[in-house]
Amino acid sequence: MDNIIIADQETHFFNDVCTYFDHAAQFTKHDAGLLDQIKSCNSVYRFRFPIRKGNGFEVIDAWRVEHSHHQSPTKGGIRYSEMVNEDEVMALAALMTYKCAIVNVPFGGAKGGIKINPKNYTVQELENITRRYTVELIKKNFIGPSIDVPAPDYGSGEREMSWIADTYATMNPGQGDALGCVTGKPIALHGIAGRREATGRGVAIAVRECVNVGEDMQKIGLTAGLNGKKVIVQGLGNVGYYSAKFLTEFGATIVGLCEFEGAIYNEDGLDFDAVFQHRKATGSILGYAGATKEFTTSGEGLEQPCDILVPAALENQITIENVGRLQAKIIAEGANGPTTPEAEAVFYANGGIIIPDMYANAGGVTVSYFEWLKNLSHVSFGRMNRRFEENSNLNLVNMVEGITGVALSPLQRSTIIKGASELELVNSGLEDTMIRSYHEIRETYKNNPGIDTLRTAAFVGAINKIAVSYQNLGIWP
Ligand code: NAD
């Protein structure tokens, strides 16, 4: 497929995703027509709308792409970025299709884009843009709890999701499930506990699963386990911040942090939370007192000594140009598309391993699925059974104490008796999903000698699952 030319900028992200797909498709047995249907973007909606800015008007470019309707609704975040373009939104929508299949979330893939730098707009202007974007989607039937369900992505968060939910509910009076039209909402607006940190938590679980397999670590010259592993994270936004937080909780040491304005490093470890606060206060990670080295570009930060690199900012960060200088043995792709296909081949040839985006950052869509289920069922997880569970556990503890004559301490009693909260159930579902999916991908990788990377294995699994959906629909034999 030819690369798409946008203005004078050549874009290749969708082409890269298709390259990965075509490579993996060789290891499946599906009809060429079916593979073509799976790979193509089903609907691409490009639109423009005016907003009032200052004393004048500005016309905003925006997109919503529904890559695959093999499952409904379609699902995917909305990116607010001045760099966003049609090729990028198509690529991200395609990745969503494969991602949902990998973690068994019953959605098709979609993605949205609004071409603005949010920093250049007031809150009121951002609200106007978001509400108008939503109205445009409603007009074309590109949003709805059973149609297409957006979520946060780069540059957007809970606030934007609230505006979308409110606009959709207002325009659809009486629709009981209206709040299921978008996920990543604040808890007060029927969001779900644990969604904010879900993607980063998922990244950390993915890394933990990978490094816990001693046999695989031996092949790349690392010891098993996360304890003491040195990690560099690029991007201190939603995904990067929570990846750093949970990797630290699991025993790893954050030695490097890279942001837009530069990078910092300390081989003995950085307190990522203190760096985050420093950036909030000063507008930059540079100048943080606990760093021993500073770099004026994010790219230099990626090349410092570490075991694990977590790119969690944007695509095309690891390319043929810089891959040879990376010192990490594992790349865990928090961002979508951070590694180009050529760079991936070199990284593996140099004895590394890549935990691919479509699996590594799937924690977000997994918990979005839970939020959507909560919105459709109109009840929070745990509400019906928590007290029942606690009473049953209490009866059991009383009985065991009575029979054995051994009295438990108050802490032991409360630990055993306690029923699960919504957050605990969400985290349990997320952890289970990430662990099962990793081993499913790894088994495919390990048991098929021709399959060269975890990404190829992930694609093979996704293609097979999507093919079954089409076959179940009776579209392909
Ligand atoms: P975000 O806007 O919260 O954070 C992104 C961060 O990256 C910002 O702090 C930004 O300053 C920084 N950044 C931008 N360019 C950079 C550069 N060149 N070098 C270093 N840092 C840079 O966005 P996010 O939601 O964390 O998304 C990050 C990536 O993760 C995107 O690729 C997104 O598609 C992907 N992702 C996000 C989610 C989610 O739930 N938010 C889920 C899956 C995948």
Task: Explain how this protein is built.
The structure is a single chain. The protein has 477 residues and is of the alpha/beta class. Helix content is 46%, strand content 16%. The chain has helices spanning 13-25, 32-39, 86-102, 123-139, 158-171, 195-211, 214-219, 238-249, 272-282, 298-302, 341-349, 357-360, 363-377, 386-404, 410-417, 422-447, 454-472, and strands spanning 4-6, 9-11, 43-53, 56-66, 74-80, 108-114, 148-152, 230-234, 253-259, 262-265, 293-295, 308-311, 330-332, 353-355. A seven-stranded mixed β-sheet has the order 11-10-9-8-12-13-14, sandwiched between helices. It has a five-stranded mixed β-sheet with strand order 3-4-6-5-7. A two-stranded antiparallel sheet has the order 1-2. The longest helix has 26 residues, at 422-447. 48% of the residues are buried. Keywords: NAD, Nucleotide-binding, Oxidoreductase. Residues 192-474 form the Glutamate/phenylalanine/leucine/valine/L-tryptophan dehydrogenase C-terminal domain. The record marks 153 as: Important for catalysis.
